[in-house]
């Protein structure tokens, strides 16, 4: 095994200095390839990364990457080492982390090697079961969020062989790997600490972007517990942080800073949201009352390029409160179209609402423009002229937003109305 300073470490250095465009470090980062970071420690930089540890009893994979990258992961790992895979660990059950094992398992069968073992959090199988229950929903969500052309959401999971609820230390072929459960992005998350290598594999508790902790279309996230996990990791003294997405972070001071500042970002959102909730505020007051830590959000590893920290406030509301936003009219509401028709009548027609929306958009009041154009289209769902305005407004809104999640939703709305505006 020859150690080279290659593209991955070069990317790591440039990313830390903030020299890369957001798209190169955010969770959708392009596949860079495999690199040996230390003797017996490899790192596969893909859309979602794989950490490969060579032990005396075989390889240990920390995460396995996605269906899209499985072939490349297999080939690159095999170029580095011909040894059998002894154990694979899922840091969590998201589909981009758990679909990279098929080729390794085929190979083990062909060569009559002992079967590899998969270890995950005890809640991981429940996640897979939920994905099977909601496959269509998740396909639609991913189509909106990532702009996939066809709905696709795989559900033929490689289930774990062993699960854990408490911290567990693996001793495999002379290498110690400590697994620590930690709720954060998911309820089935864990991170791995290799004490001898001073190396931390964080899974998606660190992703080179503002934490995926608010996601508007997905299930509950856990901001407070996430921050606590980052604080636990901060004191380990890691020399290397190997994230779920994006390049490694090297050197103890940088690792500490990245973990501390990510924790600080979450902590201020949690504190402010809880303070307002404890005063009995309604959701509207909370959404517009919480102040974002702009200096932290400017860090190359905390930019809101994927999730939006404003969505984390809503996740906290859902976690500690309920779904009701505090507006009594929203408790058992009229159909939206009924309200929209009543307001359109008062305004002098749906097109009057639509014109007002376009004026608001040209005054740079895009959130207001979106409210008005939704009312206009709900009042006149077949009016191609109104849909034309809606397509323009959501295209502008998309351009004005930074997070992939907001941009995906606004782009889907613009696309929907663009199609309906061409019917006349
Ligand atoms: Zn991920």
Q: Let me know the average pLDDT.
A: 94
Strand order of the largest sheet: 1-2-3-4-5-6-7
The unique ligands bound to this protein are:
zinc ion
Shape: elongated
Q: Give me the Rg, rounded.
A: 24 Å
* Percentage of residues assigned to helices: 40-55%
Major beta sheet summary: 7 strands, mixed
| Beta strand count | 13
Continuous helix count: 16
Structural class: alpha/beta
Distance between the termini: 66 Å
Task: Give the H and E element order.
Answer: HHEEEEHEHEHHEEEEEHEEHHHHHHHHH
Note down, in words, how this protein is organized.
The protein has a seven-stranded mixed β-sheet, sandwiched between helices. Strands 8-9-10-11-12-13 form a six-stranded mixed β-sheet. α12 (336-347) packs across α13. With 424 residues, it is an alpha/beta fold. 45% of the residues lie in helices and 15% in strands. The site of zinc ion has 7 residues, from loops.
Question: Which tags fit this structure?
Answer:
single chain; 424 residues; alpha/beta; seven-stranded mixed sheet; six-stranded mixed sheet; 16 helices; 13 strands; 15% strand; elongated; binds zinc ion
